[in-house]
Amino acid sequence: xxxxxxxxxxxxxxxxxxxxxxxxxxxxxxxxxxxxxxxxxxxxxxxxxxxxxxxxxxxxxxxxxxxxxxxxxxxxxxxxxxxxxxxxxxxxxxxxxxxxxxxxxxxxxxxxxxxxxxxxxxxxxxxxxxxxxxxxxxxxxxxxxxxxxxxxxxxxxxxxxxxxxxxxxxxxxxxxxxxxxxxxxxxxxxxxxxx
Length: 195
Known about the structure:
This protein is of the alpha+beta class. It has helices at 2-20, 82-94, 146-155, 179-193; strands spanning 34-43, 50-56, 68-69, 72-74, 101-111, 116-125, 138-145, 169-172, 175-178. The longest helix is centred in the first third of the chain and has 19 residues, at 2-20.
C-alpha cells in the first residue's frame, strides 16, 4: 500500500510540475471570441491517474449533443475570472464543490470553429463529492486513464505535431474525443510526455 501511495504522490507531483512550467496557447483577440472555460480534472482511483470527461446529453436540438467534453461553459458577467467560471460549472454540471479541487493553473486558450475561446484549467479532484450530473446537460461521465490516452497519442504519431481540430481523434470504448476537446487533450498530453 505504501508503494502505491508513493507512486501516486510522485505521479501527482510530475503532473503539477509539467503543467506548472509549460508554455501554453495564449489569449486571442478578445473582441473576436466569446469567452468560455473548462476544467481538465485529474483523479487518482487507480495506480495511473485518470481524466474526467463528460458526454453531453442526447437531447434533440442541443448543439453539443453526445459530444465528449471537459466540464465547463460560458463566462458569465458575474464571474470575476474564467477560473471562477470553470469551478462554477463544475459544481453546476457535476456537483463537485470548488473546495475539493486543487487548481494547478491554466493550460492555455483554445478556439472553436464557432468563435468561442476556451480557457482550459487543470486541477486535481480529491473525490470527496458524489458526482451528481445535471441530466439536462450531461449524458454520462467517463474516467479515462491517462496512460491509455498517452498510448493513443504515441500510436497515432501525434507527438510533436501541430494538428488541426479536424485531424485529432482519441477513441475510448464506444466514444471518440474529437474537435476542440481533442485539441486541449493533445496539448495536455504533449506537456505530460515531455522528458
